[in-house]
Structures are given as structure tokens and as C-alpha cells.
Amino acid sequence: NNAPLLSMTGKQWLDVFLEFNKSNGFLFDGIDWDYEGHDDLRSPTAKFTLETLNIMADFSVEAKKAGLIVAMAPAESYLDSSIELQPNNNSIIIDYHHDHEHDHDHDHGRFSLRLDLPPRAWTPSYNHHATESDVELVTSAGFSHAGRQCYAYVLARAGIDTFDWISIQLYEAYSPFAHDVHRRGVDATEAIMVRVRRLVEGYTVSGLPLLLNSDSSTSSSSLSK
Q1: Which residues, 6 or more positions from 208, have their beta carbon under 8 angstroms from its beta carbon?
Q2: Distance (Å, rounded) from C-alpha 111 to C-alpha 108?
Q3: Residue 209 carries which DSSP code?
Q4: DSSP H or E stretch at residue 75
Q5: What is the value of pTM for the model shown?
Q6: Phi, then psi, of 215 in degrees rounded to 5
Q7: Could you read off the pLDDT of 18-40 as tens digits, one per residue?
Q8: Rounded mean pLDDT of 53-79?
Q9: CA–CA separation, 22 vs 32, rounded Å?
Q10: For residues 59 and 10, is the Cβ–Cβ distance under 8 A?
Q11: 100 by DSSP, 3-state: which?
């Protein structure tokens, strides 16, 4: 039961962290978020809760104020810039919607709290480059541990300038990057640059829960840092 943990705010958790760090000779210069799901899909932690994401975002904001280094290392499916760009889109568009737990089959840029989803790029209903052999490969491996843009909510709530760096895990199992390079034969350098350009130019994340005390949009220009 992690309810007592979730009853604490991000700032309260930072206070605990700061006290621990001080009492142990300042072991840590900051924090790097790499919070993921669970191997057992029946586990309660096979999905995020909004409370957990709020703690991550609010802790990060307060940690930055305290002079700590703040970073994140999301699996690529948790912050996936390889989705198709919208026409004439030159910024991240945050589309707020209360139905944030429902994962729409054909809206591959939609936010979800779930961490037990099939890998987007390997699934034909999400990616027109995917094939039935891709599906067979993923199915035979029994892999269903992908997310959908969940760290985008943390970025939107905390603000991009809260983070000193963001290192996306392109090596995530059955990641979009792995599909581009190993299944489609895209040059690895070009695949990386496509993602860089889309992070700079912006891409749409729909279905984000409404944010309290935060801006309704995020500038894409600072994503290049």
C-alpha cells in the first residue's frame, strides 16, 4: 500500500531528500528520474498514477530552486518525438482532455498513464511502417511494457527549464528507434536527427490531464538544450 507515500507532496519529498543528503555528507548533486513500470503486468505499478507524476514534477521544481541538478531519462515510449508531425506545427501542442487513461488506437501521440501497452512503432494500428512480422516478433517475446507520452505531463507541469538535461532511452526494448534502425533500415544517425528536429520543432501530445498552477503550453525551443 503506497497511499502514505503518495499523500506527501513533491516539496515534502524534497525536504526528506535534502535532510538525507545533508546527513550523509551531500552524496548527491541532484536527481535523475528513471521511474518505469513493472515486469509483472498485474502489479499496481504497471501504470503510473497522476499523483506520482505530480510528485515527480513538483519535486523537480523545488529541487531546481534548491540548486540541485535535475534530469530525466525516460524510455523512448514515455517521451516519443518520433510520432508523425502535424502539418504546419511549429510548437508543442498540449491538448488537455479529462479522458487521460483511455488509449485511442489511432492516436499515437496520446498521453496515457498505462505502462503495459504494446510498442507503438511495432504495431500496424499505430505505425503504417509496421508489418505482421513485427507483430509476430513482439508477440512471441511476450512484450507489452511500453508507455505513451507519460513523461510529457511531467515536462508540461514542471516546465522544460526545470530540467538540466533529458536523455531519452533509445535502447528501450522494442523502441521506435529500434524499429526504425533494425526493421526499416534507417541510418542510425538520421534516425537520431529526425528525433532532434522534432523535439526542436515540436510535436503534438493529446489527452493530457488539466494542469493546475502551470502554463497551458510549453515552448519547444528550449527542448534543444
Answers
A1: 94, 95, 96, 97, 100, 111, 152, 153, 156
A2: 9
A3: P
A4: none
A5: 0.81
A6: -70, 155
A7: 999 999 999 999 999 998 988 88
A8: 97
A9: 18
A10: yes
A11: coil
Burial of residue 69 (number of CB atoms within 10 Å: 0-12, 13-18, 19+): middle
- Please state, in angstroms and rounded to a whole number, the distance separating the CA atoms of residues 110 and 95: 9
For residue 190, give the C-alpha cell: 538520421
* Tally: H helices and E strands in the chain: 7, 7
Of the listed ranges 22-36, 60-74, 119-133, the least confidently predicted one is 119-133
Judge whether residue 132 has pLDDT over 90. yes
Contact between 152 and 208 under an 8 Å Cβ cutoff? The reply is yes
**Of 73, 207, 77, 204, residue with least CA distance to 144:** 77
In whole angstroms, what is the distance from residue 51 CA to residue 133 CA? Answer: 38
pLDDT in tens, 181-211: 999 999 999 999 999 998 888 888 888 887 6
Let me know: does 149 contact 130? Beta carbons within 8 Å.
no
Per-residue DSSP letter, 6:
H
Which residue carries 530525466 as its cell? 72
- What cell was used for 14? 524534497
Backbone angles phi, psi at 75, to 5 degrees: -55, 150
